[in-house]
Amino acid sequence: MVPQQPQSRNPAPALALPRTEQRNPRTTGIDRVPALELLRLLNAEDATVAGAVERALPVLAEVVERVTERLRAGGRVHYFGAGTSGRMAVLDAAEVVPTFGLDSTVFVAHQAGGERALGTALEDAEDDETRGEADAREVTTADVAVGVTASGRTPYVAGALRVAGAVGALTVLVSSNPAAPLAALAEFRVLTDTGPEAIAGSTRLKAATAQKMVLNMLSTAAMVRLGRTYSNLMVSLSGNNSKLRQRQVTILREATAASEQACRRELARCGGDLRLALLCLLAGTDPAAAAAALSGAGGSVRGALERLGGDHHRGP
């Protein structure tokens, strides 16, 4: 049994703090237990995150559909966050590029305090509402603005959402505070109630994990809806190094059942473009026809196959 720490004699009223900053009664003895028990306490708290995210899925699904519509029409997704929240956004925006073969301007992450804040904690940057407003000036009516803040009250995010909303962009708030003060600034609120952290107020823990899950699902689901995958395969993957080039071959073999030699030959014929190689193998066509079909289908491999009349039932 975990020994419990005595409670403060004059604790702050629980309702005065966001749930993300309240004290967790399950971990008050965390500094008095062996390392293994300490890790079990942290792990037990982390295990609650997926359930909190699951409860927000209906709203997130609506967001995915709206984001997909905007991206299909040429819009962009802008993330705005401070501290750990901003870093989670930067990570997702960076990694969606190689995974789905996107231009780096499609998902754009804005971190309070700029690039220096990515590796250094600039605690006062999150209070700069005017910087949030300035960073959001590039958001257009066609775009999506996603504010990421564990507490749901970060001034930098408030400034960004206010400006984005004023120009008619789709606005989304991602927060772990079910009573987020900034909720009124967003059309959609993805609220993952992760509760008090194992270390009071350290939202780099559960809240950040929830943010990573939400942003990963948002970007991944939008890309799938746009046809940037074929089944569950990363067919938009670029072969920028030897590992990725081998992965391209593996994906082609999974999708087409062709030999490794045939897959390498088709990749070479298509200039290393995995989607074109896949279309050529499945539809028995040439790179030019595959490229035309892919363009006509808005980049969707399945849509391109339908245009080519290929035997895509051979694939997954």
Write out key terms for the chains shown:
47% helix; Helicase, Ruva Protein, domain 3; single chain; five-stranded parallel β-sheet; 2 domains; 5 strands; globular
Structural topology:
Blueprint lengths: L34 H12 L2 H7 L1 H16 L4 E5 L1 H18 L6 E5 L4 H4 L9 H7 L8 E5 L6 H12 L3 E6 L12 E4 L14 H20 L16 H15 L3 H10 L4 H10 L3 H10 L4 H8 L8
Parallel strand pairs: 1-2, 1-3, 3-4, 4-5
Helix pairs in contact: 2-8, 3-8, 4-8, 6-7, 9-10, 9-11, 10-11, 11-12, 11-13, 12-13
Briefly say what this structure is.
The chain is an alpha/beta fold and 316 residues long. The chain contains 13 helices and five strands.
Describe this structure in words.
The chain contains 13 helices and 5 strands. It has 316 residues and is an alpha/beta fold. It folds into 2 domains: 51-225, Rossmann fold (3-Layer(aba) Sandwich), CATH 3.40.50; 242-314, Helicase, Ruva Protein, domain 3 (Orthogonal Bundle), CATH 1.10.8.1080. It starts with 34 loop residues before the first helix and ends in an 8-residue tail after the last helix.
Q: So what's the overall shape?
A: globular
Runs in which pLDDT lies below 50 for 5 or more consecutive residues are 1-15
Let me know the largest β-sheet: 5 strands, parallel
The radius of gyration over CA amounts to 23 Å
Order of helices and strands: HHHEHEHHEHEEHHHHHH
In terms of quaternary structure, what is this? single chain
Supply the CATH class of the largest domain. Alpha Beta
Helical content (DSSP H or I, runs of 4+): 40-55%
Report how far apart the termini are.
50 Å
Strand order, largest beta sheet: 2-1-3-4-5
CATH topology label of the largest domain: Rossmann fold
Structural class: alpha/beta
- Per DSSP, the total helix count is 13
Write down the domain tally.
Answer: 2
CATH architecture of the largest domain: 3-Layer(aba) Sandwich
Number of strands: 5
